[in-house]
């Protein structure tokens, strides 16, 4: 073609010089059509616009052709494509995100699920084992409550149920499609859709940072609302119970599929939701009530086999329980009676009691004086082996124990009664003086427990002293008129006095005292006072001498005469006078500690 | 059925909730309740041959403490600017809100202006001249009373027709 054109050009150069050359003329005539074609081709080559149009026609085929031959084209285009993607992301990342959304999700899920697969396998195995026992438990619960088994299983295993699914247009918040698990559905799905969007907007505005941060889920009473968002639409699932993480991927799959199939309809949505009838199957896919189905079926099969055995075992068990309860109840009653008795016993304080490891136990404090609680077991028809007893000794402040303890310490004679009460130990009755003294000393042994009180305890020795003194003092020794000689008939009286005085001295010595005897002489009123005084003094001295000669020690005598100034009896006749002509003794027990025995 | 999102805009206590309540449930309560956040209500209206489901987003009234979040306006097909005729400043606020709404959803989205509390004629503050100015600018304006119901239905239906692209 080049040669042809060249010749043509040459011809043009020569044309104006010479007159029309016939050959040239012939050529022009012959090739006129070709000539215009050549001109057109030239024009095409020179015009870039037409050129571009030409290339665009063959470009896809050319690229395809070249790609089959070698990879030079890929290499050549790589920097440009990379640069283009980069600048697209810089300009607005969401364009690419929106474009890649339907493919990115599945790819990521696939990668994650394969990584988790091995882990889940071992987890499932563990779950299977635990559920077999669980299955029996549910049957037991159904039997016990009278509810049908499916209801129990549903109650216990209904991990979740997706009650409703809303497909919501993301931008307007308008409802595109709605499905409900229950036939009744919901009255104002479109209002709920709006509110959900408002809530999402609110949460996003309040907390969300970037465009992609948004509300994933929230709880309303027993419902959880899970929100799965795509670029154009949002899926909201209202779930009863606790949905597993797998549900999330179900929702994700659904929203991805809807975007893939109806991306254009979503983008052009103007309020008419009819095109989205098509999305119903995807939403219904999310509605499934999901139970722990696999695990439950496994448990069910095993439990069916086990249930027959269980019924037989149950009957045996019930009889066993009945027999056992009879004995248990009887034992329990005896035990309670025993504890009651213990509580009533003085000197026993129960601190703790109960049943541990199949045995009863009781622990507490016991006064050594109290009854033996272990011995009491037999009386309550409880075996010693069935009860563990732990008794710590202590002293009880029970009156009878204080009294018993006091008796131990004081060793009182039979004439003494010891009683306890009001924080004191009281001694009553009578006792020898020596014991009384000793008892006071010994009572210090229980000083902390009770005060010793012997105010109402009579002193035996003191009483005898008193009686003897009285006897001695009531025995006058008579004298003849104007005589100071001892009359023979008074010798008995003197002997008696002498003996009594000896005894008196002995008793007094026992209580650490001495006896002083005043010998008082008298005269009758017939003589003169002076004579009477003189004779009375003589009489007293005479008796004193006679008595002191019979006493070894412990008694001192003092003689004095009172004349007729202290008559024993007013003198009316001779008998009175004879009585007043006498000597009488006055006993004084003196010295030493303790109570006085004088009148 | 065509659904349309409609937002109620206006200062606090101008009667947005009351207008929705009157329009949707034919109820009016003297007691004032402040709207917190958003409450969505709906009403189906006949527009020409078609039925239209209006989803009324009753937004909280803007006050000194909370500015309106324009994100709530996203996707609205129309909005209603509510003014309390007895408080002049609420009209000025409505003009400001209209500017913000236009920025958020675009100038082509239809709206109407409701001069509410028309029953309180003796306390009326909004001057006719100011209203006329807005009408001249092409604001479809209605005197409404949520209490008596006057103008309410007409106002909502006008907006519905405009959203449907029908003549009004």
Throw out a few tags for this protein.
heterodimer, A: 599 residues, alpha+beta, six-stranded antiparallel sheet, four-stranded mixed sheet, 56% helix, 18% strand, disordered N terminus, disordered C terminus, B: 168 residues, alpha/beta, six-stranded mixed sheet, 4 helices, 27% strand
Largest interface: A-B, 21 and 22 residues
Radius of gyration of chain A in whole Å, from Cα? 68 Å
The SSE string of chain B, one letter per element, is EHEEEHEHEH
Stretches of chain A where pLDDT is under 50 for at least 5 consecutive residues are 1-15, 122-130, 293-297, 593-599
What can you see in these coordinates?
Chain A is an alpha+beta fold and 599 residues long. Chain A has 18 helices and 17 strands. Chain A has helices at 2-14, 22-30, 32-46, 48-69, 72-91, 93-145, 149-157, 189-207, 245-267, 280-287, 293-344, 373-379, 399-410, 433-442, 460-473, 491-510, 529-550, 574-580; strands at residues 160-169, 175-180, 217-220, 223-229, 233-241, 289-290, 348-356, 359-366, 387-393, 416-421, 424-431, 451-453, 457-459, 477-478, 514-521, 555-561, 582-590. Chain B is an alpha/beta fold and 168 residues long. Chain B is 29% helix and 27% strand. Chain B has four helices and six strands, in the order βαβββαβαβα. Chain B has a six-stranded mixed sheet with strand order 2-3-1-4-5-6, sandwiched between helices. In chain B, a hairpin with a 2-residue loop joins β2 (38-47) and β3 (50-59). The longest helix of chain B is centred in the middle third of the chain and has 17 residues, at 89-105. Chain B is globular and about 40 Å long. The two termini of chain B are 21 Å apart. The mean pLDDT of chain B is 90. The A-B interface holds A 169-175, 188, 190-191, 194-195, 198, 201-202, 204-205, 270-273 and B 1-5, 37-42, 52-53, 55, 57, 69, 71-72, 74-77.
């Amino acid at each position: 073609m080049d040669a042809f054109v060249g010749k043509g050009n040459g011809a043009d150069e020569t044309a104006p010089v010479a007159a029309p050359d016939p050959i040239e003329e012939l050529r022009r005539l012959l090739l006129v059509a070709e000539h215009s074609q050549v001109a057109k081709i030239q024009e095409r080559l020179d015009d870039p616009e037409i050129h571009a149009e030409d290339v665009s026609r063959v470009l896809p085929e050319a690229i395809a052709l070249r790609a089959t031959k070698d990879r030079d084209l890929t290499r050549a285009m790589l920097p440009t494509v990379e640069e283009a993607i980069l600048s697209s992301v810089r300009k607005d990342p969401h364009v690419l995100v929106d474009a890649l959304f339907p493919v990115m999700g599945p790819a990521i899920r696939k990668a994650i699920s394969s990584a988790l697969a091995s882990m889940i396998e071992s987890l499932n195995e563990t779950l299977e084992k635990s559920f077999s026992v669980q299955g029996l438990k549910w049957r037991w619960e159904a039997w016990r409550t009278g509810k049908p088994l499916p209801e129990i299983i549903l109650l216990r295993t209904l991990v979740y149920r997706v009650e409703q699914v809303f497909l919501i247009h993301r931008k307007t918040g308008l409802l595109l499609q709605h499905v409900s698990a229950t036939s009744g559905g919901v009255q104002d799905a479109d209002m709920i859709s709006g509110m959900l969007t408002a809530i999402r907007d609110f949460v996003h505005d309040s907390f969300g940072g970037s465009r992609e941060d948004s509300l994933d889920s929230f709880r309303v009473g027993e419902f959880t609302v899970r929100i799965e968002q795509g670029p154009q639409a949002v899926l909201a699932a209202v779930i009863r119970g606790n949905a597993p993480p797998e549900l999330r991927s179900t929702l994700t799959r659904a929203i991805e599929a809807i975007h893939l199939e109806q991306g254009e309809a979503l983008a052009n949505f103007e309020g008419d939701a009819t095109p989205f009838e098509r999305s119903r199957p995807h939403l219904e896919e999310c509605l499934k009530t999901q139970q722990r189905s696999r695990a439950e079926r496994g448990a069910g099969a095993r439990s069916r086999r086990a249930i027959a055995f269980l019924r037989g075992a149950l009957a045996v068990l019930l009889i066993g329980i009945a027999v056992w309860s009879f004995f248990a109840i009887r034992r329990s009653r005896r035990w309670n009676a025993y504890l009651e008795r213990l509580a009533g016993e003085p000197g026993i304080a129960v601190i703790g009691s109960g049943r541990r490891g199949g045995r009863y136990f009781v622990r507490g404090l016991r006064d050594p004086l109290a009854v033996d609680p272990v011995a009491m077991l037999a009386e309550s028809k409880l075996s010693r082996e069935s009860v563990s007893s732990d008794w710590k000794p202590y002293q009880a402040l029970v009156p009878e124990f204080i009294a018993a303890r006091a008796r131990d310490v004081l060793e009182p004679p039979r004439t003494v009664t010891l009683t306890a009460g009001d924080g004191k130990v009281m001694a009553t009755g009578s006792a020898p003086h020596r014991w009384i003294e000793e008892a006071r000393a010994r009572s210090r042994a229980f000083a902390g427990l009770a005060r010793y009180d012997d105010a109402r305890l009579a002193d035996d020795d003191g009483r005898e002293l008193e009686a003897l003194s009285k006897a001695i003092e009531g025995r006058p020794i008579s004298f003849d008129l104007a005589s100071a000689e001892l009359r023979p008939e008074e010798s008995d009286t003197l002997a008696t006095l002498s003996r009594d005085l000896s005894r008196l001295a002995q008793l007094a010595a026992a209580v650490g005292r001495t006896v002083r005897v005043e010998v008082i002489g008298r005269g009758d009123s017939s003589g003169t006072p002076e004579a009477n005084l003189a004779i009375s003094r003589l009489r007293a001295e005479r008796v004193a001498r006679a008595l002191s000669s019979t006493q070894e020690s412990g008694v001192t005598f003092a003689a004095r005469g009172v004349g007729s100034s202290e008559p024993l009896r007013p003198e009316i006749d001779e008998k009175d006078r004879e009585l007043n002509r006498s000597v009488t003794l006055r006993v004084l027990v003196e010295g030493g500690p303790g109570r006085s025995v004088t009148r | 059925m065509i659904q349309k999102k409609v937002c109620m805009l206006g200062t606090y206590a101008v009667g947005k909730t009351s207008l929705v309540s009157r329009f949707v449930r034919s109820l009016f309560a003297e007691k004032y309740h402040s709207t917190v956040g958003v409450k969505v209500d709906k009403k189906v209206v006949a527009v020409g041959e078609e039925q239209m489901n209006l989803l009324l987003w009753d937004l909280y009234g803007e006050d000194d403490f909370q500015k309106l979040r324009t994100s709530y306006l996203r996707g609205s097909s129309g909005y209603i600017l509510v003014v309390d005729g007895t408080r002049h400043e609420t009209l000025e606020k409505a003009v400001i809100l209209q500017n913000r709404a236009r920025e958020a959803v675009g100038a082509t989205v239809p709206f109407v202006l409701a001069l509410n509390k028309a029953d309180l004629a003796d306390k009326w503050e909004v001057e006719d001249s100011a209203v006329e100015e807005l009408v001249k600018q092409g604001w479809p304006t209605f005197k409404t009373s949520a209490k008596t119901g006057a103008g309410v239905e007409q106002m909502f239906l006008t907006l519905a027709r405009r959203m449907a692209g029908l003549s009004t």
